[in-house]
Design brief:
globular; 40% helix; single chain; five-stranded parallel beta sheet
Length: 256
């Protein structure tokens, strides 16, 4: 497997990692996990080397745990563990394909660890506006909107620091992917070294997040919640702005 390129998809829960993964694995030169029987075919559930997200609290929580942030200094970075991952993941990949992809949300804060195990790896990082991410996660994370926005900021700040150590990575926004999927797929295929483009098996809806922004606006009008939402916006506006987002403008720049 020394000739294969390992590509790790990184991004928080509900950030578009599954959509990206499904689109990219249709490329004829790419192999991605399929029909594995585990949630969303995520590699974290198909290996025994490191604990899955849920061991650190799961969606909306894992980024707060210092122990969940793996780097090249981790004691888990061993040749034995590398061979174990190759064996366990390799049983689900088509090893005749030159590009092998894996997707797990916590890859966002484990890129240095994965690069240490797979030196010829590449990373695709997808980011989505924190409002849809938080509203889509809150029902099954058991945490507050404030905590979820803070988690979004925390995890992306960790990535910003870690990417200084990463040799090859590509960043994109969920909003760009759903608005112009073919252009974003072209960028990704060029990045991973794949010839041509995969078949677009599904057409993403660029207006899907409108419902989440509408809910957020509704919360700002509710008598007993609007102060809470305003507090969130004031506390985190400057942080999400660093990543190209705002609570006062939609992701594509149109004022509310």
């Amino acid at each position: 497997m020394t000739d294969n390129t390992f590509v790790f998809i990184c991004g928080l829960h509900k950030s578009g990692t599954s959509l990206l993964f499904r689109l990219l694995r249709e490329h004829p030169q790419v192999s991605g996990f399929r029909d594995t029987g585990v949630p969303r075919d995520e590699g974290q559930y198909l290996q025994s080397v490191y604990p899955p997200d849920r061991a650190f609290g799961g969606p909306g929580r894992f980024g707060f745990k210092r122990a969940a942030h793996f780097t090249e200094r981790s004691s888990l970075v061993t040749e034995s563990n590398r061979q174990t991952l190759i064996k366990e993941w390799g049983s689900y990949w088509d090893l005749s394909k030159p590009v092998l992809i894996e997707k797990t949300p916590a890859n966002l804060i484990r890129s240095r660890f994965l690069q240490a195990l797979f030196p010829n790896s590449k990373f695709i990082v997808i980011r989505r506006h924190p409002v849809p991410v938080a509203l889509a996660t809150v029902k099954w994370s058991g945490t507050s909107l404030y905590s979820l926005i803070k988690h979004w900021v925390t995890c992306h700040q960790i990535w910003e620091r870690d990417k200084e150590y990463i040799k090859e990575f590509l960043e994109l926004k969920y909003e760009d992917l759903v608005r112009d999927p073919m252009n974003e797929l072209k960028r990704m295929c060029e990045f991973i070294g794949g010839d041509g483009l995969p078949e677009l098996t599904a057409t993403p809806d660029p207006s899907f997040d409108d419902g989440y922004f509408g809910t957020w606006r509704s919360l700002k009008r509710e008598r007993y919640i609007r102060i809470y939402i305003k507090l969130i916006e004031q506390r985190f506006q400057k942080h999400i702005k660093e990543f190209g987002y705002s609570f006062y403008f939609k992701a594509w720049g149109k004022k509310r």
